[in-house]
Amino acid sequence: MPKPRDFSLSTFLSTVNPDLIERYLLRFIPEERLLPRLMGMNPDYVEYVLKGNDALKTAVTEELRRINDACYRDLPREAAKRYGVPAPDYETPQSTALGLFLDHSPVFDFAWALYSFKSAYAKISQHWLQVHDISADSQAITNFRTELQSFFAGQARGDHCLVYVFDQPDEMVILVLHGSYLRTVAFWQGDNLKMNPFRFACDDVLIYDKAHAVLSVKAPARSDRQHYVPTFARLILGDAALAECPERDKIYTFEPLQTRPSDWVGNGKVSAVELRKAKLKPFPGSSEVRTVEGDNLPLSEVDSKHGELVEAKLRFIVTVGGREDKVTTTITPPCTTDLVKKRHAEIIADYLREKRVMLR
Length: 360
Hints:
By secondary structure, this protein is an alpha+beta fold. The protein contains eleven helices and twelve strands. The protein has helices at 9-14, 18-25, 43-50, 54-69, 75-82, 93-103, 105-118, 138-154, 222-235, 255-259, 345-354, and strands spanning 124-128, 161-167, 171-179, 183-189, 192-198, 201-209, 214-218, 270-281, 290-297, 308-320, 323-332, 336-337. The chain starts with 8 loop residues before the first helix and ends in a 6-residue tail after the last helix. The model has no long low-confidence stretch (mean pLDDT 92).
């Protein structure tokens, strides 16, 4: 699941265009039943309207919390620009998100998919599938959805599975909403002990980079990741053999870093690289792992003479528009990272390709 963000109903309402708030409330309350208002749709008025109706206040609060979550890194504006929906620079992210929710729900769903991907706790697995020119027709998407419904139902995770596909010129984004295993909570109702079974809702995201033919998968469960890759290759790309290629998971290698650490200097946009943490095995195949950690460790700490580097946390100093930004990312070869969720991910990826650490 994505990381929850702090939320205050009154704070959210104070940042949104009052006309949008009015249109949002009219989805629940007819105009003739709204109380007279002298000051427009201000937060105090909305709180007063919801007062005494706990069910409505809960529904509104949870829905607006989700809309506020999607404002992470101004993703609603990014989604609007990609789909050609007007999103003025003076408008707050909250106003843009609520406007998309009311008038352009597929674009809001796209923003939510990006939020789910970029804010998730889980690391991302990446897989090279070779095909650059792709587009999914409605039948392929239907077959993909049917396959996933069958997969999750067969694992006793419920029959509900929703699949949303957003096909952009540079990438294809797929949001998959499905159930978890059934859980039961015991609780007291008066003097009686009751049992309440429920399923958590899970959201996984797949993003296919068409330029580099790389599929990035955000799914916490390893079994799900292992199912998504061949299913995507077979039903979306139309070739199951792509998932069987021995080069499929060879995305990262630390060999250049371990053999030529002196090469890791700035290239303009990336002005410096700092080592924050490293895990090394004394020799390939060893179960023993040694961890070194600290601020700005010398790269000589991961020289090949110290063993095989199996994971590294690196801080990149990135300069964009005259401003310096620090981005920390973790890479675990051959195919796991959190880089694709980070700011300036494309700049850092280009640097890693230049240094031959990123192979695709």
